[in-house]
Amino acid sequence: MSSAMTREEAVSRLKEAEKIVFFGGAGTSTESGIPDFRSSGGVYDSVPEYVLSIDCLLREPERFYSFYRKSMIFPEAKPNKGHRVLAKWEQKGRLSGIITQNIDGLHQAAGSEKVYEIHGGIRENYCMRCHKLYSVDDIPEEPIVPRCSCGGMIRPDVVLYGEALDQQVVAEAIELLTEADALIVAGTSLVVYPAAGFIRYFRGKVFIMNNKASTPLDHKADVILREGFSNAMEWLDSECMK
């Protein structure tokens, strides 16, 4: 990457960009009331990986679903201002797509369509026996382990620990990054691989990092913003999309 730029230089390049890509993590959803997964005191601190693994789902489905329903689904969460800014940019033809580590579906709820969920999403679920599809709203609260009409267990279409990423989604996300001329990364610690490794495929003109805490890839960024997600996106919107 190039040496550090001033904010004004970064804004100038973002204004000229024709293919902006956004890469986000859990920090983009905290303002919507969803806890950060990996920050101090987050969900990851209070639960072992096993509880969110494919092994737990298959061996102890009651344990998996007891945690999953309580800590991974937030039906009251709504898109925040940052989500809405990105949706507006897509509608204007400035944003090529969103690559997200989140499973909450808030980008889609805000109106974004070009969303690449590399860890899957809670919005879609399917029967492990007959593969019938269910939306998250179709799954009743009882029994704790949801069952299809065929008797098979319904599972969320998310990538659990012990499972591989969807290679088609990975390939499409990498292609998006290789073609981008501007990249905005926000709300992610960039410590979870292979997702964090995607950033190396970007070779564009400006890389803007927006994260309250430092990340291992801060040295790659042209400009670093330490504001909250919504404030940063509203500022970029006001400066670059006039």
Task: Describe the 3D structure.
There is one protein chain. The chain has 242 residues and is of the alpha/beta class. The chain has two domains: 1-33 and 79-119 and 164-242, 3-Layer(aba) Sandwich (Rossmann fold); 35-73 and 124-158, SIR2/SIRT2 'Small Domain' (2-Layer Sandwich), CATH 3.30.1600. 30% of the residues lie in helices and 18% in strands. The chain is built from eight helices and nine strands. The strands form two sheets. A six-stranded parallel sheet has the order 3-2-1-7-8-9, with helices on both faces. Strands 5-4-6 form a three-stranded antiparallel sheet, with no helix packed on it. Strand 2 (95-100), helix 6 and strand 3 form a beta-alpha-beta unit. Helix 5 (81-91) runs parallel beside helix 8. The longest helix has 13 residues, at 167-179. The mean pLDDT is 92.
The count of domains is: 2
CATH topology of the largest domain: Rossmann fold
CATH architecture of the largest domain: 3-Layer(aba) Sandwich
Given the C-alpha coordinates, what overall shape results?
A: elongated
Please give the number of β-strands. 9
Order of helices and strands: HEHHHHEHEEEEHEEEH
Helix content: 25-40%
Largest beta sheet: strand ordering: 3-2-1-7-8-9
Low-confidence parts, pLDDT < 50 over ≥5 residues? Answer: none
* Major pleated sheet: 6 strands, parallel
How far apart lie the N and C ends? 27 Å
Percent range for β-strand residues: 15-25%
Count of helical stretches: 8
Rg, Å, rounded: 19 Å
- Helix/strand/pairing class, anyone? alpha/beta
Question: Taking all residues together, what is the mean pLDDT?
Answer: 92
CATH superfamily of the largest domain: TPP-binding domain
- The CATH C-level class name of the largest domain: Alpha Beta
